[in-house]
Every structure is written in structure tokens, then in C-alpha cells.
Amino acid sequence: MWWVVGVVLAVVLVASYVTWLAARVERLHDRAAAAAAALDAHLVRRAVAATGLANGDMPKLRDAARTALAAGPEDRSGAENDLTRQLRALELDPDTMADVVTTSRRVALARQVHDDLVRDALAARRRNIVRMLRLARKYPKPTYFDIEEPTLGT
């Protein structure tokens, strides 16, 4: 009789662990997706601020900002890197660039948070039990967003 209680207890413990692990995998993927959306919003804000800074007399910066706004997912990092290079090449006073500098710092922070969450989600996906039970099969594999450090010098 005691062995039945032991088996039932073991099954309950394993089921509880698998349920907890599945919820953790789901949470990590949801957080990574939310961080990707936040990063995208900050990148759009930076491109809009750069467009406002260009205001007609800086055509290269304006074109880089418009390209970054119009870029699709596959060529987004290249467009953002080009915008970062254009912004670093500017030699304006800090008051003029205050909005762009602030948004660039927020992009850097959002990218760090996103990459940390992607790392955690990928680590959870690599666990043997997650792969064996295919707990992450319904979530798209998160990817890093690889761009140059978007912070500006001022």
C-alpha cells in the first residue's frame, strides 16, 4: 500500500515540475516578444527624432532615418547601423541633439534588456527536458538584435 502512495507522490511531483517548467518557458518567450516590441518602438522614436533633427539641411541623415523607418525585419539592423553612423558623424551642440541622445540611450537600454531575455529564453529551450517534451514548440525561436552600440558621445 505504501508503494502506491509513493508512486502517486512521485507522479504528482514530476507533473508539478513539468507544469512549472512549461509556464516558465512560456513566460520567457512572452517577455522576449514584449522586449522586441519595446525595442522596435524605441528604434522608431530614434528615427523620428533623427528625421526632426535633419529638417531639410542634412539629406544623408534624413535618408538614413527614413530608411530605418521603412526597413523590414531582415534588413533592419543594417539600416539602424547606418543611422547610428550618420548620427555619430554630426558635430552639433548638445542642446540641439538632446532628443536624439536621449532616445539613443533608451535604444541601448532596450537592446540590452531584449538581448538578456533572448539569452534566457534560448537557454530554457536548450534544456534537455524542454527539448524532450517539446515544451517550446509553439513559440517562435527568439533572435538577438545585433546592432552597433547606439549611444552617442554626449
Output the helix-strand order: HHHHH
Provide the structure class.
Answer: mainly alpha
- What percentage of residues falls in helices of 4 or more residues? over 70%
The radius of gyration is 22 Å
The percentage of residues in β strands lies in under 5%
The profile of the biggest β sheet is: none
Secondary structure: number of strands: 0
Secondary structure tally, helices = 5
**Uncertain residue segments:** none
Apparent shape: rod-shaped
Task: Report the end-to-end length measured between terminal Cα atoms.
Answer: 74 Å
Instruction: Estimate the mean pLDDT confidence.
Output: 90
Detailed description of the structure:
- Helix content is 74%, strand content 0%.
- With 154 residues, the protein is an all-alpha fold.
- The protein starts with a helix and ends in a 21-residue tail after the last helix.
- The chain contains 5 helices and no strands.
Summed up, what is this model?
With 154 residues, the chain is mainly alpha-helical.
List keywords for this structure.
mainly alpha; 154 residues; single chain
